[in-house]
Amino acid sequence: MKNFKYLVFVCMLSLIAGFFLTSCQDENQTFGDIVAPSNLSVSFDIQGVDAMNPNGDGTGFVSFTATADNAITYRYVFGDDSSNEVAPSGQVTHRFTNNGLNTYTVTVIASGTGGVTTSTSVNVEVFSSFNPIEIKNLLTGGPSNSKTWYWNAPVPGHLGVGPLDDVEPIWYAAVPYEKESVGCLYEDQLIFSQDDSENVNFELINNDNTYFHRFEVEDELGQPNPGEDTCYPYEDFGMTNVSFAPSSSGIDETISTQTSFTLPNNGFMSYFLGNNDYEILSISATEMHVRIVQTEPSGFQVAWYQKFSTQDPLGDNGLVSIYDNLIWSDEFDTDGAPNPANWVYDLQDGCQIDPNLCGWGNGEEQWYTNDPDNVIVEGGILKITAIKEPTGTRDYSSARIKTHDLFDFNTGRVEFSAKLPASVGTWPALWMLGSNNDEVGWPASGEIDIMEHSPFFNPNEVVGTVYWENEGSVASFGESIDVSNLSSEFHTYTLEWRPDEILMAVDGEIYFTFAYDDSLPFVEDFFLIINLAMGGDFGGDIDPGFTQDTFEVDYVRVYQ
Questions:
Q1: For burial by CB atoms within 10 Å, which of 36, 331, 402, 480 has the most?
Q2: For residues 216, 219, 222 and 225, what is the CA-based torsion angle, rounded to 10 degrees?
Q3: Which residues pair with 173 in a beta bridge?
Q4: Residue 9 CA: distances (Å) to CA of 5, 29, 36, 396
Q5: Is the pLDDT of residue 150 over 90?
Q6: Which DSSP helix (H) or strand (E) runs through 193?
Q7: Assigned architecture for domain 326-559
Q8: CATH assignment of 38-128, among 1.10.10.10, 2.60.40.10, 2.30.29.170, 1.10.4160.10
Q9: Domain map of the chain by residue range?
Q10: Going by CATH, does the domain composed of 133-309 fall within 2.40.128?
């Protein structure tokens, strides 16, 4: 061992009476011995190893123990793109989450006095069977797809904070569009993609301008705490893989998916909180709610809540609703038949109601049923499927559901999130009829078509229309908008029904405006309808090769 000494020469040159006087002194300062760790060894224990499971039970947990002479602390690099972990005792448990059987090179770095280190590596072959494929598909749109998420700025509490032992942001919850003025949050795009092997990647597009929590500014940027959350130039981390694991928060499964994901390489979802582990509380095809734990400088921990949507909150010609009180909804979160408290069925082909309604008055080719093959709720989605099969007097079966006599209302904001069928000849519709239709008939009752689509006439277009009676004839007004990926992605179709004006929008972009007065039926109550027709006046000619296709609805919500 060597003692480390150094000599400091403190010299002063002074000019006195024309002579240089040199005064020097030396100081000896002694530091402790610098000792490199030696005899470093690492052992590991894979959870659940037995004769039937030589690489573990699928949980992916591995316990490591490192020992060395003269080591002060140890640092682990796990070889799976997760964050490094410091373990002063040398003992640590890590979960490997890449699905299947994988070999990882785990490096252990032992630190001695004076910062001298010694390292060694071991190869660990681990089996992990945690693969939340349904959540992966909702997050990305499925294999070989990607999905872009945005802050769900129109929703109260899209950003909030609360205690760890609660699941609500009871200390603070942002009001709609509260952070629009900060200029670097709502513009962000969060892109999740999935390859054919079910691996998920994440990329944040934020123009290298990041919204920082005030406590994280000093640690990450080396700048003083600004006293409030602030935007800073900060280069994003590029594309990174996403690792999934069962959540460890203990939150009840009724309010959490029990699934967490990690964004390695210091990845983060738009708001920098100093943590890259996110628990998914809920997720659908169009909305996601996550929880992230932040440790403040004092060591106190809080839970931040973030809500995202596939709808750009800053889209051009954006709809600013005057309605924000949710009065009715169906999230389709219970598998089976549609909720009978919300929906009833229209059945058969219309002839049984009125001979003039055969083919539902439009020359349609389907027979409506309540059969699960035609209408069912699965995995949080309402699915209406049209099938080519002789049914009743028709060659196609399908379904139509409505809220008549269960939920009727006047004015408000109606939102449907839906993915449309692509087959030529299909005619999906989200629409409304006047509740007095049985008494006064159509078009006197009025009709509001929030979304109709015909792949036969235009596969990229949706149409909105209103109908009423004018001196004994049918009067109408309609507009259309082109929308990309109608059949591969969910889009939000909105009706803003005001006392003197009807607006319609797709993904927040207004494309339809219609003013009305008390002489028109839109001052009366209406009810909701969802259906998938075949052929007819708007569906057009049906593809001879058609077998079946599905109209999917993620949710229906009504605000007043």
A1: 402
A2: 40
A3: 160
A4: 13, 12, 30, 98
A5: yes
A6: strand 189-194
A7: Sandwich (2.60)
A8: 2.60.40.10
A9: 38-128, 133-309, 326-559
A10: yes
Which pair of structure tokens corresponds to residue 394? 């028709």
Q: Which helix (H) or strand (E) holds 217?
A: helix 216-221
Nearest to 314 by CA among 176, 187, 155: 187
Which is nearest to 157 in space by CA: 145, 148, 170, 144? 170
Exposure string (b/e) for 525-559, b if CB count within 10 Å is 16 or more? ebbbbbbbbbbbebbbebeeebebbbbbbbbbbbb
Model confidence over 43-89: pLDDT tens digits?
999 999 998 889 998 888 899 999 999 999 999 999 887 768 899 99
Residue type, 502: I
CA separation, residue 34 to residues 71, 72, 115, 470, 487 (Å): 11, 12, 8, 96, 66
- Judged by DSSP in three states, 438 sits in helix
Q: Give the largest Cα separation in the chain, rounded.
A: 126
Active site residues: 447, 452
Question: d(Cα 209, Cα 186) in Å, to the nearest integer?
Answer: 12
pLDDT digits (tens, 9 = 90+) for 492-525: 999 999 999 999 999 888 999 999 999 999 999 9
Counting Cβ atoms within 10 Å, is residue 231 exposed (0-12), middle (13-18) or buried (19+)?
Answer: middle
Question: Quick one: how far is CA 333 from the chain centroid?
Answer: 16
SS3 content of the chain, % helix, strand, coil (to 5): 5, 50, 45
Q: Is residue 110 within 8 Å of residue 88, measured between CB atoms?
A: no
